[in-house]
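ingest -> validate -> predict -> emit
validate: passed (alphabet ok, no gaps, 239 aa)
predict: started
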Amino acid sequence: MIEVVPETGSTNADLLARLAAGEDVVEGHWLVADRQVAGRGRQGRVWNDGAGNFMGSTVIRLQGGDPPAHTLSLVAGVATYAAVEASAPELSGTFLKWPNDLLVRGAKLAGILLERSGEAVVLGVGVNLANAPKLPDRQTVSLASKGFAVSRDAFADLLDTCWSHALRSWRSGGWEELRQDWAARAHPIGTPLQVHGPDGELVRGAFAGLGNDGALQLELSGGTRRQIHAGEVSLAPRR
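emit:
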């Protein structure tokens, strides 16, 4: 089910509030806003979008035997990539960046935000269909600017289908296949990356794939590998 509201602060915040109030928000229910005026991304960034873009959130009810909840970020990336690919099949230069961005030639097209609430996870997805919000620290892009006119409602239906399929796979033993799907849609092995860790440490290295748990693998200059479980990742200029 897709519930559409004309305007809200944040679809993620709305679903978190519903969960906190004890509302039985079921899996498969999407809350989608025409406009979002207090949206946010990772690291507390403001992420406000206007009419025509996709801004929506859904809930995952964690069950015993599920893979680790943090892997849902990568699963959502695979689903979002699939929905964009179906909407704009001739779009080139599209790739996933760990853990939750979809880029087109280095410019951000879509972002994903997961927030935990007890035994539930709220998944928020924002995709620049009609316009790209201006961000002070990164380039952005929209499908419209690349020549693809994509209806928000049609995209919502596509994403709902792609996400439902991915979630069923994740829950029924398909995490390894999804992990490989994510890696196949990421920037190439060897891509220079830099990571600002939660403690402020800056780590530079080359993309070396994903660990079994979805951690980012970096090959450092000395040839050693380092697993990254959290941090702000950006593409680094080649030297």
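The longest strand covers residues 107-117.
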